[in-house]
Structure formats: C-alpha cells, structure tokens
Amino acid sequence: MTTSAWLQLLPNLPPAWKDSLVVKTINGTELSVQSIVRIDELFVVIRGRVAGTTEQGQVYFVPIDRIETICIQKPPREEEMQKTLNEMFGSSVSLPPVIEKTSDNLRATTIMRLSPEAHERLKSLSAASKQSNPPAP
Question: Whole-angstrom Cα distance, residue 80 to residue 86?
C-alpha cells in the first residue's frame, strides 16, 4: 500500500478497531497496538508491544512507508465492517463466487469489484503518492 493510502486509512479507523490492531512492517516485525499516539506524514507513533512478548507500553516510531499490513485482532461483525468500509471508501460491488478447479478440489473465490467512486479515490491516492515519492534515479 502506498504511504498516502495508509495516511488515508489510519486516522479514519473506528476507535474500537484501533485498540486491537497488529501492524506488520516490511521486515516482518509485528507490533500489537494498544493505541495510536500520533499519525504524521512520515511516521506513526504506536504504544504497544512486539507481538509474542508481554512487555507492555513501549512506544514505537514506525515509518509509514515501512508498514506492510495491518490486522484487526478482534474483527468486527461483517455488517459493521462493510458499513464502516463503505463510509470510508464508498460502496464496493460484490460479485458471486467464482468456482475454480485446482487439481481434484473445487475452490470458491469471491471477487470484489470497487465502485467507480472508490476506484477514483484510489487512483487519486496513488497519483498523490507518486508526486510525493518520485522514483529514485
């Protein structure tokens, strides 16, 4: 995900979601989040602990561009999650599952297609990210 996409997502997460996040960096470190102290253009300040440890209350300065994924440890109900994501990004169009044949097993895959509004928003975030992070020569 681009830096600007994380900057769009993080401040808009509901408080209940922020209390149960795990932030995984590109080097594989997982941080269990107690709270997000500050979100800046270049970094996020997290109070929490390294996943798998019991040492609480550490403060981590994580560069935004080093975040690989964010996980919600206590996921909300599907309806609540869809409503919140629709408010943040616009509604998505859900397609029926596609059945794929893999060796001797059938596998159902759900394909989500973005609404035109969400697609335009992601394109603008991507363009903004490219302007603020030009490719290295």
Answer: 10
If you classify domain 1-75 with CATH, what class do you get?
mainly beta
| Alpha carbon of residue 16 to chain centroid | 15
Dihedral sign of CA atoms 53, 56, 58, 64 in order: positive
- pLDDT band at residue 109 under the 50/70/90 scheme: very low
pLDDT tens for residues 23-43? 999 999 999 998 889 998 899
Neighbours of 33 (CB within 10 A): 24
Give domain limits for the chain: 1-75, 76-132
- What is the per-residue pLDDT across 80-101, written as a single tens digit (0 to 9) for each? 888 888 887 777 655 555 555 5
- Please name which of 89, 136, 126, 135 lies closest in space to residue 4, comparing C-alpha atoms: 126
